[in-house]
Amino acid sequence: MENIPGTKITINEKSKRIINLEIKEEILDKLIFPFHKFDIRALEYKPFTRFTLAKSLDELFASKLSKFIRSILTDRNTGCLLIVPEVINKKFNDIFLVKLATGLAHLIGVPNFDHMSSKYYARFFVKHEDQSDSYLRKAYTNMDLHTDGTYVRQKTDWLLMTKLEEKNAEGGESVFLHLDDWEHCKELFNEPIGRQTFVWSSPKSKNIEYKVEHPIFSKDSKGRPQISYIDQFPEPQSMEQGNFLQKLSDSLEESTSKVITPLPVGSTVFANNYFWLHGRKPFKKNKNLSRELLRIRGSFFIN
Fold this sequence. Notes:
There is one protein chain. Helix content is 25%, strand content 27%. It is of the alpha+beta class and 303 residues long. Helix 1 runs antiparallel to helix 3 and helix 3 (47-60) packs across helix 5. The model has no long low-confidence stretch (mean pLDDT 96).
């Protein structure tokens, strides 16, 4: 496996398809100065500064990090990275983590505009009480396996999620499933209805006024299954579509191939959005529960 200075690269103990990349403290310390050059507002208002940040990040890793991330995310046998700082302390706070996530994302592609936050990224809390209209913030409800970008016109090749904070949390483990490990993939992929056009919408909190149309399943350049699916947003137009969606949902949630794992504060999951699904287990009730996440999703550079 690639030798990148300042990192430790291993295979995840829960899945051989997930690659762990630990960033050593000495490298994190060296990032403080180039990260300090741009405040968050500059990154939000001037898109080119994000690429400057990414270049500084890549240079500290001998220009090997960008190539490595892309190689893992585009490899069907893997497609998922778990990036973990060796230490998290006051030096490496939430602002530092937002900048780190920004740099990582811009090493391999261009983020989508996130309508929920009106930025290239979104930060959101999961707490004890919630009045939202989406499962995203429902702490005590299982977030079923899904992919991102199902309801937007933007191309969504990959997803990055960083855990910025977590307090008084029990449960809430992350759940992942690779299409090639899913027992019912071939069966459902081969059902013609899965390649019918489905209508997809979103709740008001997403700030999307339009609907999109696309099938659940498609093929990659080698004819392998790809999926674009989330349980909350399809609008079935027939009994056949409705029943297929129920069958799909049940078979995903009942899969014995799901990877269920807690993620430490400061960790970043970087995954291919076409053959990896993700979700979250419910938390145990606690009125002081607080988890803050950062999300960036986007497309690969064309070249």
